[in-house]
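Researcher: Sequence of Ribbon-helix-helix domain-containing protein follows. Predict its structure.
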Amino acid sequence: MPRKSQSVKKKQYITVSIPTDLAEEIDKLIETNPGYISRQEFIIDAIRRRIEELIKLECKK
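Model: Prediction complete. Tokens:
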């Protein structure tokens, strides 16, 4: 456990707007697919996976 004098780095976040219909599709997927507990978690995972795909494509060039 960190001491009070040690600084604990907190993640910083930004806000991104998405169309309402896309948010509703995500919500439906979360309801029917176990594994995600929130829209935020789903979106973070989707972005992470897409970044990995793009990095792999760049490596193949």
